[in-house]
Amino acid sequence: NAGVTQTPKFQVLKTGQSMTLQCAQDMNHEYMSWYRQDPGMGLRLIHYSVGAGITDQGEVPNGYNVSRSTTEDFPLRLLSAAPSQTSVYFCASSYSGNRAGEKLFFGSGTQLSVL
Amino acid sequence: DQQVKQNSPSLSVQEGRISILNCDYTNSMFDYFLWYKKYPAEGPTFLISISSIKDKNEDGRFTVFLNKSAKHLSLHIVPSQPGDSAVYFCAARGSNDYKLSFGAGTTVTVRA
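^ Those are the sequences you sent over. The predicted structure of the assembly is below.
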């Protein structure tokens, strides 16, 4: 059971480049989300999805796009990378996202540097 | 504005002693609280949780205490072990809310 898989693990971009961070889960979770981790800021929610075809914004959505065409996959797109997007990105999933007693399962992260 | 605050960035404790990590929140709608543990180069993993109908939840060496009137929760690790050295994140959300809010984390170092 692989859980939540993120690729790539490391990425260096130049300002203005675009890229997609991949996230896949094999637990049949309806809820998926993207967080970024920055020093002194903890984990901040970027976007989330409560099922295929449904996405919504989190706390820091600007500069990022998401889509959810299947239950398994939830890619995060940076359309025009900026140095402020240098961060560690985590994908996380859970069964429904809002039930009492639920916990998030996290991937191992993608470290992104934008020069 | 962060709704979940962990005001101690770091904590150093001797092996075998108690570790106490604190967390404060500002949103009175929060009623479900979790602690996550994170090792370097790995994703956070769930540690323990508590709902607002309780004031204490225990799981082995880990106990979480909730004081709703003070909007404060704490995580106790007894006894602390070298493998407990990690970053600990406090998180919270409201009922039927899809957004989990995290604190900035506390780095725990357990000294031998």
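The interface with chain A takes residues 2, 4, 6, 9, 32, 34, 36, 41-46, 49, 51, 89, 91, 93, 95-105 of chain B (CB under 8 Å). Chain B is about 0% helix and 55% strand.

Shout if you want it in another format.
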